[in-house]
Amino acid sequence: MNSSVLTWTSLLWALALAGAVCISAALLLLYALLQSHKSQVPKWRPKNGPIHLLVVLGSGGHTAEMFSMLRRMKLDPTKYTYRTYIVSSGDKFSAKKAVEFETTYLTQDAASANAKKPVSTSGSYSIVTVPRARRVHQSYFTAPFSTLNSFWSCLLVLRGIHPDQGPVHSRPMQSPHPDIILTNGPATAVCVVLAARLLRLWHALNAVFGFKSKSDRNAISPDDFRLRTIFVESWARVTTLSLSGKLLLPFADRFLVQWPDLAGRKAWTGMRETEYVGTLVD
Amino acid sequence: MATQDQLMKLCFVTVGATASFNLLIQSILEQSFLRELRAHGYTHLLIQYGQDGKPLFDEFLRQYPPGSEGHHGLLIDGFDFNPDGLSYEMRLAKAWSSEGRVGGLIISHAGSGSIMDALRLGVPLVVVPNPTLKDNHQQELADILQEQGYLIAGQYWDLTTSLDRAEHLRVKMAHWPPISKDQQTSQPSLDQVMCDELGFLD
């Protein structure tokens, strides 16, 4: 009788301890998220250095809006020297639009800016296909597994070792990670942004605990300043955030909205607010 | 003897590639709407009816063979979709005097890609939200763009009034895209936001 009371008490203590550890870990993660939301990027990058831009494309409207924004901002291929486009499996439209943008718009633009040297963009971009998180009509029982599969694929892309990216040495970048990630909210964007945060957390933990791989020690610039994420809410969203937007509100480094009603939203107190920037499409 | 009647005035209707919108196709092919089109000086009607719209269009042609009274003197044609995009078809609605075309009209579903394409051309645009879509935020986009003077937010059951309003819009359309942001506004451009995040040295 006495001993059984003892076991119950110790079990309770163990549970309480485990609970406390879990809660403090969650609080620590929240605190880290809050801090990273409040902090600015340090000025560390020399001008005219190579920049790797990663663009997440989605179905019809998202992709059309993305290229419309890139055209309007006059994306400069001599500044954003390497570009990776993520498309979902089966989305031929987006892959085609990406090739079209690279081979007609960017080459034309570079040629007109610098008439003596028409620039070819081949070799300075890649199009990577990741599996869909959930196909239309797919059962909800298998959806978690396909989402994990999609997430894993996005992690490979961000680490530069996805098979569609070709060998690392063929790319002119110091780091396998993209410098900046731009998305306007297809479902894949959720996986990509969360994968970027996970990698940054990994780098931050490495820095704290001092586990550094050889490549990290040789790198000139710290990898935790890369993988910055910019989420642009779709132009089609006037008064309500999209599901991807709601999910990514606490995670994206910058959250831009194109209509005034969506300005100033935040995940919770102390977090960074959405920024109203007006119409970005053309 | 080039008269006004010989100039082409085209109305292009598009339902997009993703979802079907047969309610719109049905209203377009109604006798009352075709009569109004003719009354507003249109000569051509081109319909992108999507994957599920073909039976409706074929049924119309069976009922009213080309050249019959039911076409009201309009040249009517249709296709399911164009994998290369619709910029060619949309341009047919733009005024082009050397090719004998006066400014026509685009009637579109409320997808953002189609709306941007049409606005860039500067052709009067009637946007018809699809009420059968779930989570319908399309109506909001159509309404706010109408408020700003870029287009006409129509309803599939009331297209004839949109024809009148399109003629008004033709005279005083707002310029697209919205004026580029200058230094005076506090709104940063996309490139500025990206540069912030990249952390360039001063």
UniProtKB/TrEMBL annotation, chain A:
Keyword field: Endoplasmic reticulum, Membrane, Signal, Transmembrane, Transmembrane helix
Membrane topology: Single-pass membrane protein
One GO CC annotation: nuclear membrane
Chain ranges passing through the membrane: 12-34
Subcellular location: Endoplasmic reticulum membrane; Nucleus membrane
Cleaved signal peptide residues: 1-18
GO BP, one annotated term: dolichol-linked oligosaccharide biosynthetic process
Domain of life, per lineage: Eukaryota
Coarse class of the protein's main subcellular location: endoplasmic reticulum
Molecular function terms, GO-annotated: N-acetylglucosaminyldiphosphodolichol N-acetylglucosaminyltransferase activity
Pfam family of the protein (one): Alg14
Stated family: Belongs to the ALG14 family.
Assembly and binders: Heterodimer with ALG13 to form a functional enzyme.
Family annotation (PANTHER family): GLYCOSYL TRANSFERASE-RELATED, UDP-N-ACETYLGLUCOSAMINE TRANSFERASE SUBUNIT ALG14 HOMOLOG
Function statement: Involved in protein N-glycosylation. Essential for the second step of the dolichol-linked oligosaccharide pathway. Anchors the catalytic subunit ALG13 to the ER.
Protein name as catalogued: UDP-N-acetylglucosamine transferase subunit ALG14
Gene assigned in the entry: ALG14
UniProtKB/TrEMBL annotation, chain B:
Domain Glycosyl transferase family 28 C-terminal, residue spans: 11-159
Keyword presence, Manganese: no
Cell compartment(s), UniProt: Endoplasmic reticulum
Predominant place of localization: endoplasmic reticulum
One Pfam family it belongs to: Glyco_tran_28_C
InterPro entries reported for this sequence: Glyco_trans_28_C, UDP-GlcNAc_transferase
Catalytic EC class: transferase
Entry keywords, A to Z: Endoplasmic reticulum, Glycosyltransferase, Membrane, Transferase, Transmembrane, Transmembrane helix
Protein function: Involved in protein N-glycosylation. Essential for the second step of the dolichol-linked oligosaccharide pathway.
Protein name in the entry: UDP-N-acetylglucosamine transferase subunit ALG13
Species assigned in the record: Aspergillus homomorphus (strain CBS 101889)
Name of the gene: ALG13
